[in-house]
Design brief:
Layout: E1 2-10, H1 15-27, E2 32-39, E3 47-55, E4 67-72, H2 75-81, E5 85-93, E6 108-111, H3 114-120, H4 127-138, H5 144-154, H6 163-176, E7 178-181, H7 188-194
Helix pairs in contact: 1-5, 3-4, 4-6, 5-6
Length: 195
């Protein structure tokens, strides 16, 4: 099993930390991981993305041109990375601020309204955990218990009291994710071309 993922959005949305938690969680399962961030000079508001590879085998390179899964958190990232999802791949996006929704018919598309849900939970800090929960519902490649261990590893000790809230956010993301383009609509001809 190898899963090649791009997580992309604005700085301050927890893009890089989401990738880091996913990598730590996968390491708990003795999987090979790669975490390669890319971001602008701005602390918040600039673009940020991270390439994450999780595999049962050695990873030869962290550099990718196409992805099994794209987790998209803003319009700029949707415009840039929607075309780079492999045929029959998966695109997960937060609808907040999206003016042009995903249009491809040869991939699985899921929407999770994490911004709205984080506001209901009275803390925007769990936004990225809601997104991560949605991803893990769709692709359960990492066990939830290992994500909690990954949180403990990546969060400074002074924030460990927030782990139960983060767990609740993960579970909420699993509940609210919506399938926009069902599996049955995917064109098999596009998939055959990619093989």
């Amino acid at each position: 099993m190898t899963e090649e993922i791009i997580i992309a959005g604005f700085g301050g949305q927890g893009v890089l930390s989401m990738g880091k938690i996913l990598c730590y969680s996968s390491m708990m399962q003795n999987q090979e991981v790669s975490w390669m961030p890319s971001y602008g000079p701005e602390m918040r508001g600039g673009t940020a993305n991270v390439t994450v590879i999780i595999s049962d085998e050695k990873i030869s390179s962290p550099i990718l041109n196409s992805y099994d899964t794209a987790i998209i958190l803003n319009q700029q990232s949707l415009d840039k990375f929607e075309p780079k999802v492999k045929p029959a791949g998966t695109l997960i996006y937060d609808g907040n601020g999206i003016t042009r929704h995903p249009e491809r018919k040869d991939i699985k598309i899921y929407r999770v309204d994490a911004t709205k849900e984080a506001a209901k939970m009275d803390t925007v800090k769990v936004f990225n955990m809601i997104i991560l929960g949605a991803f893990l519902k769709i692709k359960p490649i990492v066990k939830l218990e290992n994500v909690i261990k990954g949180l403990k590893k990546s969060l400074p000790k002074r924030y460990h009291h927030l782990i139960p809230l983060n767990q609740k956010a993960l579970e909420r993301g699993m509940e609210i994710v919506k399938n926009i383009i069902p599996d049955k609509i995917i064109k098999t001809s596009s998939f055959k071309k990619a093989i």
